[in-house]
Amino acid sequence: MTTATVSMDWENLSALADRVAANIAREWGVVEKDDVKQEILAHAYEHRKAIEAVYPDEAFIWKIFRKAGHQYASRERDARDLLDDQYYYTPDEAKQALQSFVYTDEEIGALMGREDDLTRARVSDNISSARLDAETGLRRLPERYRGLLERHYVEGIPLTNRADSVACSRALIALSKAMNRQIRSNNLEKI
Questions:
Q1: Is there a single domain that holds both residue 48 and residue 102?
Q2: Among candidate residues 98, 103, 95, the one with its CA nearest the CA of residue 169
Q3: Average pLDDT of 49-66?
Q4: How many CB atoms are located within 10 Å of the residue 73 CB?
Q5: Is-contact 176 89, C-beta < 8 A?
């Protein structure tokens, strides 16, 4: 059984990548059109078998290109956030903020400067802003992620299977990214 090789028109694909890249560059202020286009074409070349399978369905290829472009823009935004000299939450700090939800604001105030029995970390005034950023970040997460994080880190219910453990780790990373976006949107509002 032999499979026929589809001959793709790379010039046409390049023009499509150019249009997709222009849209993404307008949506994301952190990337330039030419960089996005280059990343899309590199993705298309690396995954040409998948592109060949749907070629010449331009609408479907647009979706593939758009996803590749968004992934690139997201990586660029995350890299910029890490290097922009503003505070950056790590997943561990997001976890500590979640674990602090078992305390009321008054209890957190009473713990300032002392070691917390639950997280074994020194409680500083940063926990108040982290709690606010975590609350906002949780609202931006999908329901499954939000539920896993709240059950495991706030309520203390152990995870029962590997799939939930992996999803919870991904949810924690997603929460830290959402918290970092919250910081940046707050800073933009002040300008």
A1: no
A2: 95
A3: 93
A4: 21
A5: yes
What percent of the chain is predicted at pLDDT more than 70? 77
- Specify the residue for token string 């896993």: 148
Closest CA to 24 of 58, 54, 67, 55: 67
Helix (H, G, I), strand (E, B) or coil at 182: helix
- Interatomic CA distance for residues 57 and 19, integer angstroms: 16
Is 2 inside any structural domain?
no
Tokens 């590749």, located at residue: 68
pLDDT higher than threshold 60 for residue 93: yes
Determine, yes or no, domain membership for 67: yes
Same domain assignment for residues 100 and 78: no
- Report whether 6 contacts 52 (CB < 8 A): yes
Report the candidate in 54, 59, 49 with the shortest Cα–Cα distance to residue 16: 59
Domain enclosing residue 42, as ranges: 10-83
